[in-house]
Amino acid sequence: MTSSKQPSNRESFVEFALQEGVLRFGEFMTKSGRLSPYFFNAGLFNHGVSVGRLGQFYAQALIDAGLQFDMLFGPAYKGIPLATTAAIALSAHPSCASRSVPFAFNRKEAKDHGEGGTLVGAPLHGKVVIIDDVITAGTSVNESVDLIRAAGAEPVAVLIALDRMERAGSEGELSANSAVQDVALRHGMPVVSIATLDDILSVIRDRPEFAQYESAVIAYRDRYGI
Q1: For 142-163, how does the pLDDT look when each residue is reduced to its tens digit (9 = 90+)?
Q2: Most buried pick, 91, 112, 169, 180, via CB within 10 A?
Q3: Residues known to be catalytic
Q4: Which domains does the chain carry?
């Protein structure tokens, strides 16, 4: 009797990203000027069903990480819907026992009327998890850490959709660590990802229709990866 392997949360997320067209293969020029064989754009999770499912993946990744947390924070602008959908999914997750998970986010510009300030949502308190899509330079995480600490709360982790496992820098002068590793070291806290480049490779190895891209992805990882 044979049993089929159940996909992990990580592999299921890669499949989901492929299905939604968020993850694509081909040739794509990155902001850093690299020609990448794959492209991940979380902004293409752009309808109710996909965003709701995305929140469930974030929630499961955070639960699987076993971290203690009190609330979520979404950096403007991409992090705002991500923190919102993750908080909804966490509140419905069986392991949270119907716990209400608060969240907050920031504005790019301070508001000088109404409630004022740059922060919106639940008051920042306790242990805070920062939610974002990817980490490229770490700028939004750095700003978020400062905002959270200034409010008297404690940033305890960053939760992202995809870890590209990629070094920064120009050819011949690549950084020693990836952007994700640099953020973890700089702030002394873990960066949890729903999936990584290794998970992408694991999925495309099992999908004949993507076999043609495997060698290019491996070559890119060997050149720029950690």
Answers
A1: 999 999 999 999 999 999 999 9
A2: 180
A3: 111, 113
A4: 9-224 (3.40.50.2020)
